[in-house]
Hints:
The structure holds two protein chains of two kinds.
Chain A: E1 17-21, H1 27-33, E2 40-46, H2 53-62, E3 68-74, H3 81-93, E4 102-104, H4 110-119, E5 124-129, E6 132-135, H5 150-156, E7 159-161, E8 167-169, E9 172-173, E10 181-185, E11 188-194, H6 205-225, E12 230-235, H7 239-244, E13 250-251, H8 256-262, E14 273-277, E15 281-286, E16 289-294, E17 305-311, E18 317-321
Chain B: E1 6-11, H1 18-27, E2 31-37, H2 42-59, H3 63-66, E3 86-92, H4 99-109, E4 117-121, H5 127-133, E5 145-149, E6 155-158, E7 164-166, H6 173-179, E8 184-186, E9 189-192, H7 198-212, H8 218-231, E10 234-239, E11 251-256, E12 264-267, H9 277-290, E13 295-302, H10 307-318, H11 322-334, H12 345-350, H13 352-361, H14 368-375, E14 381-388, E15 393-399, H15 406-420, E16 428-433, E17 441-444, E18 447-451, H16 458-462
Parallel strand pairs in B: 1-2, 1-4, 2-3, 4-5, 15-16, 16-18
Antiparallel strand pairs in B: 5-6, 6-7, 8-13, 9-13, 10-11, 11-12, 13-14, 14-15, 17-18
Amino acid sequence: MNDGKTASDLIRLEGKKLLIPVGGSRANIVQACKINGVEEIHLLVTKSLFPNSDDILKLVRNLGFNTALSIVQIEGPEAGPRDCRDSILQGFREIPDYSPDAIFVTGSTLLMVATICHIFPDAELIALRGKNLVSLSDERNFSTSKEIDVNEYLAIHGLSINEENRLYMNGDLLPAPPLDNYNMEGSKLTLTWTNWDKPTHQFNKKRKAEARAIGATIKQIIDEVGIGAFNFNAYYFGQFILNTTNQLIVKSKPTIEEFRTQIEYSSIPNSLEEISVDKKFTTYKIGRLQAVMKHNNQSDASGGLRTKDQIDKHGRLVIEVENSEDL
Amino acid sequence: MMTSKKILVQILNKSGPIPNISSVIAHSPDIVLFILMNNGRDELTGKFDENLKRIEHWNVSNLPTFFGFDENYELKHPPANGIGVEIQSINLDNLVKESVLIEDKLRAISDNISSCQIIFDVSSGRKEDVANFTRMKFSPEINPSIWYTDSNTGESVEIGGENKQINGKVLDQITSFWLEGFPVIDSVQIYKKSEMNLQLVTDFLDCLEQIARKELEPIDKISALESILKTKGIEMEHLDVQDCFLLEDNQFRIHYSDNSGGDFVISANLFSRESGIWLEQIAAIAALSEWDVDRAYVGLLLVSSNHQKRMQWIKQKLGYERQKMGVIWGKMMALGLITNEFSDISQILKYPRFFLDYISDQWMNLTPELQAMLLTQAAERELDVLAEGLNDTLFVECGLTPNETTVPIKTSQIASLVHSTSLRGYNLSFYCHANFDFSMGRTGSRIFVCSWAQLRNKSGLLELDIQPVFYSD
Lengths: 327, 473
């Protein structure tokens, strides 16, 4: 987890005071609470995201963390940059002897990060890169205890998932269909919706409605917790997903690397589950994704399946029978 | 006499050029130096390169050319002109270790660096880079001040200090669309507050609301509206349809009987339960009448920034629109652009693909008028209403029939546009409908569901608590 570095290479934060600006994404709080031996954590939170500072304390305590926590509540950037800046300066003036040993700079907004880095010039700057906490002054890693659990991650963002994989936010069911998959990728949780209906060239009302519901759900999550807290995938919803989501935020097709991590790439199983067959193509389920094979006119084509190492325009892995001619 | 230059230093943003351009506009420097952080990932390098190119082309006012539009093509909604600043860039691996490279670059671009005003703006880039940026150390003669610029307001504040500057210049939404890679190609209508008589708008909407509540067929409602407007000295003059490509409805010109000016045009298909153009127009003038906006666009069409993709969209859409294809064929025939191969219109309508490829191949030879008609078919996104001013910006999606299914999901398309243009947090999104019995709601801090009549109640909407809308109606 720490790039193979030995314990002596790692910076330790025992007995140190840590300052964490909190934006929409709250995973940094959990990450910071997991750092071994931190004496005290100050959270810099905005009144708009956390009107009641007790809420954030409750969320953290409910997750079982006991590090000493205190809150500095400020006007956020939505109050205007001057009020936000002045509110940060005023907030720390009210704690006269306060000086953090380290600042966590991965969370919150640029204005807040820049302001606290400027007013505490001697504090160590710590960034989260993937699963690692890194010192920006010398690129050394910090020792951390455990990775963030999926349920912890969801809970700190006010989300939960029921047994049917439907998402809830603050107890309310969100409109998106059930998730196909959710898992931690580095320091972020990835939420994936996959359409398993037959591909069709005809207008598909259900797919359109589902794509819109996914778009609405993603918007609600982003409005609540910010743009960077989650990775979103919505696969095989075709053009509809492009019209209902922002492609900078939502991935609509898997990459070849995702196929490589999901399947034994060199030997594709011969008994793939069929999703649909039409005149030209058969679509299969392959892992949690889809593959497509063009029908070969050769009636004697036989043998195992192999990948052509290509993805078609719909995001399906192109496969063929091993002894077939190139298509 | 030596002139002191203002040099702005910024980290180039990855996810779009707007934060960088906003601070350029706010500080009006003589020179801007962009820091490109090396990252070792081709995908990210491509994004940085694209952003820098967009900034450079915006700066010299030829962003449309960069996106493949003909230089001679007269755009209806072009991006605002750039400011012609000198642009420099530098690639760095690490801000902490390579401050000397920035110092060298600053000396290279200025004859006398100690006389220059140097501004570091921290409103773009990765947070960890910005954190380091605020703490960079230089030789004594280089003494930058550190600023943050808010893209939405154009307001800049000095980090750690008390200084603040507002020059009032912010990017308009149309330019923001362009910069984010969504060229705006056309709109059904533009209403400008400065050209309208707001009393006429208010009187008209009051009467419209009164009639809309009556249980009548649309045609009877129009007659009733005409009568009630007459009592207030307002007339509805019928105009014939002008454009089969964009606005297919006939229209009414609304004006005072004494022709005192400030009149406006709306669809003659008022109260229709099938076509919603009238609702979009009414939402636009309702927004103009009550919100702090100075213009409202109806039916904005946004196309791809890539020429080939635009051609694909045109082929795909026109393939299903035989009547429009026939119009295009007729206009090309009149211009002598139809070869023998495509002289039989019946064959073209039967097998449109080859003709559509031909249109694409002939693009450079088409007249601007024909290009404009065709580009309306390349729209990837449509925005029903955009109402914009210095203080308020409203994105409005209209729907005639709100219900349990449409309301939660209808705003997702508009939300994606808002998120795409980096202005999240300030704009207001509306799902606006024509059902007065349906509850008015606020489903997020900046998301509203309301009828067009309720859209006129600005304070009522802004005072709403965030809660789900009710579907009992």
